[in-house]
Amino acid sequence: MKKKYIILIPLILASFIHLVNPVGFPDIFFDEGIYMRRAMNMVDTGNPQEGYLYDHPYFGQVLLAGVLQITNYPHNDGSTDPASLQSLYLVPRLFMGMIAVLDTFLVYQIAKEKFNCNVALLSSTLFAVMPFTWIFDRILLDSILLPFLLGSILLAIHFAKPQSKLWLAPVSGIMLGLAIFTKIPAFVFIPLVAWLIFQKRGKYQDMLIWIIPVLLIPMLWPANSIVLDQFDLWVEGVLWQSQRSNSILDIIYYFLLVDPVLFVIGMAGIIYSAITRNKFALFWFIPFVAFLSLVGFKQYFHWIPVIPILCIAASVWLLDMPKKIKYLQSKTVHRIVIASILAFGFSSTILIITNDVSYNQFEALSYVIENQDGHTILASPSYSWILYDVFGIENVPIDYSMVLFNPIETKKITVIADSNFMLDQNRGDILRKVYNSTQSIRYFEGRVNGFDDRVYPYTSMLLNQDGFSIDVRAGDWK
């Protein structure tokens, strides 16, 4: 295959992995419902701010709302069939899959420009096939911001070349500004992109034209809160986000559950980068992990922005191994080692992504829609936006935790008691009262329960707990 077509290998692999089963795997995650609800609110009202909680900036829901608007979403004829309800997540999940394919392309281009075609091919293929890649299919802000971050880095690399155009710097700044406007922690990549921009001529004028959009675009978030006379709520929300804490060891544990091979070779690549003084890899990785350690974000998907550099650093290390290890100087042995890693990653990914682990979520939702009978329905955001925005059912709080702050107005309640609801009962007595005031009327066995999550690669099923069994409960409310 000619070199200019070699990029088709990782792109075809990525397209297959991310588009073969977009809704069945992974399960429909709690946070995905939040962003879908906010996108639907944006479509309906034109206002990116929903309610009074200021936890994240607006670009995520604005972009999603644009996709929904263009595709004349939602596509539902009133059918309550579980398969029809499941298809309500098809368009946004396909969009996330296409973003992941674009990310694969950008990883290839970045590695090619900073290193060479061999590093580009291996790093983009690792990015495409290793099991961590399934996480990119969830509707998450970290996944949405990634192509803008990668685009900013790629443009900055091109700007650093001698004959580059000046417009690359502000466009790179716009891209990074949009990434930060999607989720604030993206600001930790400012040193990396600034360093790349500064490399061209060593002039602060270049930095100035780059940094202006980086700073101004995210300022639209607090500016909107001032327009709405809610700046005090904005400050409160930002402080609340910064006080969420957890050990980085917990995040590493979840990474190892999903993709221990990528973690090991990626970290080996980062260590090798430190030894060889690869500033590009270190500026990308170290500030982010330092921030993660200090602030303590506790979700496994917070690793998403550094997965590209882990793949790139691992590729540099793997391709340089013959220089360091005598046994691997044989091209045959070296190729077998790399091929084995890729084959293991691809097969492990296929074994999990070809399963439908979300269907029981829509079976439960279908049952509730058909039997709600004027009840207040308490459910996670995964379901509540469908109940309200698609079927127009009243008395559906944006999520079940709203009962902690607002009274229940009806005499009867229905609860979709999934794993999130069961875990959150310790948030307040009212949630325990809701559970104890209801009786189980239908139980939906989760397909995730059918896997042995102690055996790799099915350890990933532990991160699909929204697809665990669901208890639909109903009762009187006093």
Top keywords for this entry?
478 residues; mainly alpha; 2 domains; four-stranded mixed beta sheet; 5% strand
Can you walk me through this structure?
This protein has 478 residues and is mainly α. It folds into two domains: 1-353, no CATH class; 359-476, no CATH class. It has 21 helices and four strands. The chain has helices spanning 8-19, 30-45, 59-70, 82-86, 90-114, 117-129, 141-159, 168-182, 190-198, 204-216, 220-227, 231-242, 248-258, 260-275, 279-295, 307-324, 331-353, 359-371, 381-390, 419-423, 429-436; strands at 376-378, 412-417, 439-444, 470-476. Strand 1 (376-378), helix 19 and strand 2 form a beta-alpha-beta unit. Helix 8 (168-182) runs parallel beside helix 10. It is globular. The mean pLDDT is 92.
